[in-house]
């Protein structure tokens, strides 16, 4: 698994060397943990032929992918598809800690990808994933097990690492909030809109309004609405419904809750409005979606 970059730096050399030394054990999967000072800047973009799952454990950073910048806070994940150029700039005044998972989808079992085609889509689409505190705790446990397995490899390590990677991917797919999948604008997302996106992602079940969100970030509603549309390519309401509907699809597939309960849990105050929005987005009713996908 080769890393391609414009410069031969010590970080890239360490990453490739460690990956290749343990490849006989992990066979396509690798975890690396590093602490960075806030002034550390990777001022060039590089790419590699495997998917990178970047988890910011502490601190803040700007993650640049294909010339587009994304602001990450502690607890955020960014998935970079294979071959896409990216680099990192750490920020703030505290030390930053990040964990990187290298994952080559070719080493995932075919029957696993066939059963969960959405996983393959996730690994082939670069984007940010927001986590709730409870989900973050689950991922921290998985990362700890992966670090332990990587540090003391034996004859069982390949299968153990594979199981942990699959558990990681399923947890992200089930409970992560994919905030960028539908954003169509080519403009850079500014910090206050980024914060608004994160707030919507973590509080979509609440009765959120444009006035409330704009006030929270000290912007007048009309300016916030225009700025949100320019930077994301979606109106505030369109984006809110996108997040709610995406979470609803996961609930339909992973729970036995009624359609009405899912509508309420996703922030819709009317099950009929939820059904109308769902049908408009997916072309089928929530019940039909559940019956054909489970």
Note the main attributes of this structure.
Jelly Rolls, 3-stranded antiparallel β-sheet, disordered N terminus, 6-stranded antiparallel β-sheet, alpha+beta, 12 helices, 294 residues
The description of the largest β-sheet is: 6 strands, antiparallel
Number of domains: 2
- The proportion of residues forming helix, as a percent range, comes to 40-55%
As a whole number of angstroms, the C-alpha radius of gyration is 20 Å
Got a strand count? 11
The CATH superfamily of the largest domain is identified as: Regulatory protein AraC
Structural class: alpha+beta
The rough form would be described as globular
- What is the mean pLDDT? 86
Any guess at the CATH architecture of the largest domain?
A: Sandwich
The first-level CATH class of the largest domain is given as Mainly Beta
Question: What does it look like?
Answer:
The protein has a six-stranded antiparallel β-sheet with strand order 2-9-4-7-10-11. Strands 6-5-8 form a three-stranded antiparallel β-sheet, with no helix packed on it. It has a two-stranded antiparallel sheet with strand order 1-3. Strand 5 (60-65) and strand 6 (68-73) form a beta hairpin. It has two domains: 3-178, Regulatory protein AraC (Jelly Rolls); 191-293, Arc Repressor Mutant, subunit A. Helix 4 (133-151) runs antiparallel to helix 5. It contains twelve helices and eleven strands. It has helices at 10-26, 110-115, 117-123, 133-151, 157-175, 191-202, 210-216, 221-232, 236-254, 259-265, 271-282, 286-293; strands at 3-5, 29-36, 46-48, 51-58, 60-65, 68-73, 77-80, 86-91, 96-103, 127-130, 177-178. The longest helix has 19 residues, at 133-151.
């Amino acid at each position: 698994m080769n890393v391609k970059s414009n410069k031969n730096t010590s970080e890239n050399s360490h990453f490739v060397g460690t990956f290749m030394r343990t490849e006989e054990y992990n066979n396509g999967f690798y975890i690396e943990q590093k602490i960075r000072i806030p002034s550390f800047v990777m001022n060039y973009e590089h790419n590699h032929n495997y998917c990178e799952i970047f988890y910011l454990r502490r601190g803040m950073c700007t993650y640049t992918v294909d010339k587009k910048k994304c602001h990450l806070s502690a607890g955020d994940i960014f998935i970079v598809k294979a071959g896409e150029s990216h680099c990192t700039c750490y920020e703030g005044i505290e030390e930053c800690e990040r964990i990187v998972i290298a994952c080559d989808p070719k080493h995932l079992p075919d029957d696993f990808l066939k059963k969960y085609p959405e996983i393959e889509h996730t690994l082939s689409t670069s984007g940010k994933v927001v986590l709730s505190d409870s989900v973050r705790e689950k991922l921290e446990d998985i990362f700890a097990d992966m670090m332990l397995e990587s540090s003391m490899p034996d004859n069982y390590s390949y299968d153990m690492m594979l199981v942990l990677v699959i558990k990681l991917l399923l947890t992200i797919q089930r409970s992560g909030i994919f905030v960028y999948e539908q954003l169509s604008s080519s403009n850079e997302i500014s910090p206050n809109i980024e914060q608004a996106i994160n707030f919507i992602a973590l509080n979509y079940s609440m009765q959120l309004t444009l006035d409330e969100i704009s006030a929270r970030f000290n912007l007048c509603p009309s300016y916030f609405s225009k700025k949100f549309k320019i930077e994301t390519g979606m109106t505030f309401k369109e984006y809110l419904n996108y997040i709610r509907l995406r979470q609803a699809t996961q609930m339909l597939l992973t729970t036995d809750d009624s359609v009405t309960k899912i509508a309420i849990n996703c922030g819709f105050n009317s099950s009929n409005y939820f059904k109308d929005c769902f049908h408009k987005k997916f072309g089928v009713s929530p019940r039909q979606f559940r019956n054909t996908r489970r």
